[in-house]
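During the reporting period the student researcher (J.K.) took over the structure-prediction task from the postdoctoral fellow and processed the backlog of single-chain submissions. One of the processed entries is reproduced below for the supervisory committee.
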Amino acid sequence: MSDFLNQRYSKARKIHKCEFCGKEILKGEKYSYESGVYDGDFYTRKLCLECYDMMNTFCCENNENEFSWDWIEDWICEKYCYGCPNKDDCELIPKQCEIVRGEFGASGC
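J.K. obtained the following structure tokens:
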């Protein structure tokens, strides 16, 4: 259970790596920076804006306050990949697919 969470948008002063998709967040790009305590352990995470929106949209659409990255990955597959005409030839991880990523930004719900 989350004891507290702080989230803000920052502009990268150096290269970071998105915790969810692994994409490099380049110097000058906006990203989501979160810190908090979960089950008594302090954590921080940096997410590119598309992945932050994926997480936020998943939580809003599923009325979840907590999540796992696997749940979000499964949700993305169900929502976007199974109906994709390229699914049989696709070698991409859904969270890295530009078609899927194009559905997200920093809009939230």
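The committee noted the following: Residues 49-61 form the longest helix (13 residues).
J.K. will present the remaining backlog at the next meeting.
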